[in-house]
């Protein structure tokens, strides 16, 4: 469930990039693969579309890394020194 938030953040970042660069697609990129995006990119819009794809991937990766990394910084319990001395 938490990973869906990363995908939403990546999608929002790509849409914002498309708005800032003033690019768009000429049709819906179904099924949404990189090849479908490139097939419906108009002439002159390559840089903005590719930039939006790269930014979306980076934001998705960063957010997912943060969300999936929670709790991994906890240290495992170390054995008590008294139990080792008794051996």
From TrEMBL:
<keyword id="KW-0472">Membrane</keyword>
<dbReference type="InterPro" id="IPR050893">
    <property type="entry name" value="Sugar_PTS"/>
</dbReference>
<dbReference type="GO" id="GO:0005886">
    <property type="term" value="C:plasma membrane"/>
</dbReference>
<keyword id="KW-0813">Transport</keyword>
<keyword id="KW-0598">Phosphotransferase system</keyword>
<keyword id="KW-1133">Transmembrane helix</keyword>
<feature type="transmembrane region" description="Helical">
    <location>
        <begin position="46"/>
        <end position="70"/>
    </location>
</feature>
<dbReference type="GO" id="GO:0090563">
    <property type="term" value="F:protein-phosphocysteine-sugar phosphotransferase activity"/>
</dbReference>
<keyword id="KW-0762">Sugar transport</keyword>
<protein>
    <submittedName>
        <fullName>Mannitol-specific phosphotransferase system IIBC component</fullName>
    </submittedName>
</protein>
<dbReference type="GO" id="GO:0009401">
    <property type="term" value="P:phosphoenolpyruvate-dependent sugar phosphotransferase system"/>
</dbReference>
<keyword id="KW-0597">Phosphoprotein</keyword>
<keyword id="KW-0812">Transmembrane</keyword>
<keyword id="KW-0808">Transferase</keyword>
<comment type="function">
    <text>The phosphoenolpyruvate-dependent sugar phosphotransferase system (sugar PTS), a major carbohydrate active transport system, catalyzes the phosphorylation of incoming sugar substrates concomitantly with their translocation across the cell membrane. The enzyme II CmtAB PTS system is involved in D-mannitol transport.</text>
</comment>
């Amino acid at each position: 469930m938490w990973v869906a938030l990363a995908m939403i953040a990546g999608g929002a970042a790509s849409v914002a990039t498309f708005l800032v660069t003033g690019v768009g697609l000429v049709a819906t990129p179904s099924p949404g693969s990189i090849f479908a995006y490139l097939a419906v990119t108009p002439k002159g819009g390559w840089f903005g579309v590719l930039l939006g794809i790269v930014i979306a991937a980076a934001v998705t990766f960063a957010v997912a890394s943060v969300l999936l990394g929670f709790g991994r910084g906890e240290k495992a319990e170390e054995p008590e020194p008294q139990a080792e001395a008794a051996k």
